[in-house]
Design a protein that fits this description.
Blueprint (H helix, E strand, L loop, with lengths): L2 H13 L7 E17 L2 E19 L2 E8 L4 H19 L17 E5 L6 H11 L4 E17 L4 E18 L2 E9 L4 H18 L9 E7 L1 H12 L5 H5 L6 H5 L10 E3 L20 E5 L2 E2 L6 H7 L14 E4 L9 H5 L2 E14 L4 E14 L2 E5 L4 E5 H7 L1 E4 L4 E4 L11 E4 L2 E8 L2
Parallel strand pairs: 4-6, 8-13, 12-19
Antiparallel strand pairs: 1-2, 1-5, 2-3, 5-6, 6-7, 8-20, 9-10, 9-12, 10-11, 13-14, 14-15, 14-16, 17-20, 18-19
């Protein structure tokens, strides 16, 4: 029996346990994944994870309670667990006050989306990765397989999303803290694409062997690789696009909506559900459009609106998560040839990764953080030396606004490698960005 069919049968049974006017909604998350951990180019740990977790929300009028259980994938045992959970939730309902912003789908809009990829057999992937680690200190983790999300309610709605993906997050270490980091992820494994990433990492690794340079605080012409730009866009997404954050004036993009601040006209950011890995529905059963345009031609365009915010502020929901952050971020490519990044940079910093980011002035969308792993000093379009760790402090209005030279003509797909509790379905498709005068403070 497939995971989808098993989920459907459980919900049919759970619906038979309801009393009076009770309504039940249920969300399922799960995966059938292979994991392989590498260290010094060798397999150190390998295994598979097959898990399903169901969350039940029991609703009676304007009150509701929710809780979740792991499924054993044994029908009798799982029915007993769900039955006990419904009884417990019913007891709790007598103790909770009405929820003024309770909202759940009632239109029974059922959907099914199953995306198959071209994933290598685990043994073949291991072979490719071990070959890449020959004579190198390769450290990383490979994850591959199906992730799925389901929604169902006692009103008859059924939604299913299943996607097959792989994700290899790795580094080549030179010594101590000297390393280069890379990521290869997607739905269709391509040996040539992986080989190109390995070759670029080796080029960076060779450059790391040179004497590092200490740069003084100041502003430098800088290229932000897609992985580095991802960190900055994630900071913008931290309350940047949610309706509630805007209505309560807590958004870091406040100046865009109150003062007319803009980014460069080449900047277009969307929640690209159709092109991402996240499901096209959310926990209360509301569907998500294929695309929500967040920033268009450098101007703020639209909000992400959760069902609760929709009810609180009297607007329509677009199926956003409760935290109203994008889960399938895509930024449009620009016109800067990716093959000419170093020559266009000419003299300045090549930044592969950023980390430890936080707001130094949230209202101004000013972010601070550190360079990470391979950051290089470039002269005359050639990498000449690694740069020691730097701290930056700059605003999105400069980095993606008046200081933006251009975005690359190619975008990179990056799947979130997080596996805490389960494989993440968040994704990014971003270009790299060439910036004039990025501010470094330490």
């Amino acid at each position: 029996m497939t995971a989808q069919t098993y989920f459907d049968e459980l919900i049919i049974w759970a619906g038979s346990q309801l009393q009076g006017d009770e309504v039940l909604t249920a969300s399922l998350t799960g995966e059938d994944s292979d994991f392989v951990r590498f260290n010094d180019g060798a397999v150190r740990q390998a295994g598979s994870v097959r898990q399903r977790e169901i969350t039940i929300d029991l609703i009676a009028g304007d009150t509701h309670c929710a809780a979740g259980v792991q499924l054993a994938q044994d029908a009798d045992l799982d029915r007993a667990r769900i039955g006990a959970l419904i009884v417990e939730l019913r007891d709790r309902l007598a103790l909770v006050p009405p929820d003024p912003y309770l909202s759940y789908a009632t239109d029974t809009a059922s959907t099914e989306r199953v995306t198959r990829g071209v994933l290598p057999e685990a043994k073949d992937a291991i072979g490719e990765i071990q070959a890449a680690g020959t004579d190198r200190d390769l450290v990383g983790i490979y994850a591959s397989g199906d992730t799925f999300t389901g929604f169902a309610n006692s009103l008859g709605q059924r939604n299913w999303h299943q996607s097959a993906t792989f994700n290899f997050d790795w580094s080549f270490y030179l010594r101590a803290d000297r390393a280069v980091k890379n990521l290869y992820a997607g739905r269709d494994w391509d040996d040539d694409a992986f080989a190109a990433k390995v070759a670029w990492s080796q080029t960076q690794l060779d450059a790391l062997s040179h004497q590092a340079v200490d740069l003084k605080p100041g502003t430098y012409r800088t290229y932000l690789a897609p992985a580095a730009l991802t960190e900055l866009v994630d900071m913008m997404s931290w309350g940047g696009f949610g309706l509630k954050a805007h209505r309560t004036k807590q958004t870091p993009l406040l100046k865009m909506v109150t003062e007319g601040a803009t980014l460069d006209t080449s900047v277009r950011i969307v929640e690209d559900t159709a092109g991402g890995v996240a499901p096209n529905f959310q926990q209360q059963g509301f569907l998500r459009p294929d695309e929500v345009v967040l920033i268009d031609s450098g101007r703020y365009h639209d909000h992400l609106v959760s069902p609760r915010s929709a009810r609180e502020y009297g607007v329509a929901t677009n199926g956003a998560s409760p935290w109203e952050s994008p889960e399938s971020v895509a930024m449009a490519a620009g016109t800067l040839p990716t093959t000419e990044v170093l020559s266009r940079l000419d003299t300045g910093l090549y930044v592969g990764n950023l980390w430890y980011l936080n707001f130094s002035d949230r209202a101004a969308c000013r972010t601070t953080g550190m360079t990470r792993f391979a950051t290089f000093w470039v002269e005359g379009g050639e990498i000449v030396a690694p740069a020691n760790v730097l701290r930056f402090d700059d605003t999105a209005y400069h980095l993606l606004g008046d200081n933006l030279v251009g975005l690359t003509d190619e975008v990179e797909t990056m799947l979130d490698p997080a596996t805490y509790g389960g494989r993440s379905s968040a994704s990014h498709r971003l270009p790299g960005a060439l910036v004039d005068d990025m501010a470094f403070t330490l």
